[in-house]
Specification:
There is one protein chain. By secondary structure, this protein is α/β, with parallel strands linked by helices. Helices cover 25% and strands 21% of the residues. It contains seven helices and nine strands. Strands 1, 2, 3, 4, 5, 6, 7, 8 and 9 form a nine-stranded mixed beta sheet that branches. α4 links the parallel β3 and β4. α4 packs parallel to α5 and α6 packs parallel to α7. The C terminus is likely disordered.
Length: 259
């Protein structure tokens, strides 16, 4: 498609509409990065009464998200971010995840922000990871899965934060082990929230560990972002603060261990 009138490489649409004409216009282009996202972040919208009162948050349903992606032929896509709310039927985003895993042969980074419409539903995080295993080109996967144990951003509930710390390693380690079938995979990141904001916890596949059963508490180190990660079994790297409207406050890196 060298003669295509659009030379767009990156496209980010907050709260896209199925009727947006640009969705069809970019099909067949050289687009390498696509974000169907939220602004402000939907998890902030849920917890902030000020933002909730000033902005609507019409995020896509999982079926609407799939409809949009099926209309787009993007052979050069390398980075994809999706924000969606699962339809009422349990497991209704299976078709979306299967499409993402097979439609973009060169996809290297995937970020999923998956929200539950039915707040009583559990989150099949291992099944989600299993559905992503056909995407063998993936190097990094970021998952915001709206886990019920997650206390939400800036939560002052110390007991809820404590419960989250007890389960987040399992929620991140098990997908990292499962997704090591993606042989290029560098890490799986899980979004967590705390008193001072939100952060990505990065879990590395077992092949990056020095031994199969290294302790998670082997070492802690604040890292200069210019350094190359990770020199130790457990490695924390913290970036600078960022606004709640776009990126997240910091990044935390944790090695996975084999089962």
């Amino acid at each position: 498609m060298a003669d295509h009138p659009l030379t767009l490489r990156t496209l980010k649409i907050a709260y896209p509409d199925l009727q947006d004409s640009i969705i069809d216009a970019v099909s067949g282009t050289q687009l390498s990065s696509l974000s169907l996202c939220d602004y402000p972040r939907f998890y902030i919208h849920r917890t902030s009464s000020i933002i909730h009162s000033r902005w609507s948050a019409p995020i896509l349903s999982s079926s609407e998200c799939l409809d949009i992606l099926r209309r787009m032929y993007l052979p050069h896509l390398r980075r994809l971010e999706l924000v969606y709310e699962v339809d009422d039927v349990y497991g209704s985003d299976e078709g979306l995840l299967q499409h993402v895993s097979t439609a973009f042969a060169g996809l290297s980074h995937l970020a999923l922000h998956r929200y539950r419409r039915d707040r009583t539903q559990s989150v099949p995080y291992l099944h989600i990871a299993q559905l992503l295993t056909p995407a063998k080109s993936l190097r990094t996967i970021h998952l915001n899965l709206d886990l019920p144990e997650n206390p939400g951003p800036y939560s002052e509930d110390s007991e809820a934060r404590g419960r989250w710390l007890l389960v987040y390693k399992e929620r991140g380690c098990e997908p990292a082990v499962l997704l090591q079938e993606c042989t290029l995979l560098e890490h799986v990141a899980l979004l967590g929230h705390g008193l001072i904001g939100s952060m990505w916890f990065e879990f590395y596949p077992p092949r990056f560990c020095r031994t199969e059963r290294e302790s998670f508490l082997a070492s802690i180190k604040v890292n200069d972002p210019r350094n190359s990660p990770p020199p130790s079994p457990l490695f924390f790297s913290r970036g600078g603060p960022a606004g709640v409207y776009g990126q997240y406050d910091r990044r935390v890196t944790v090695h996975s261990v084999a089962a």
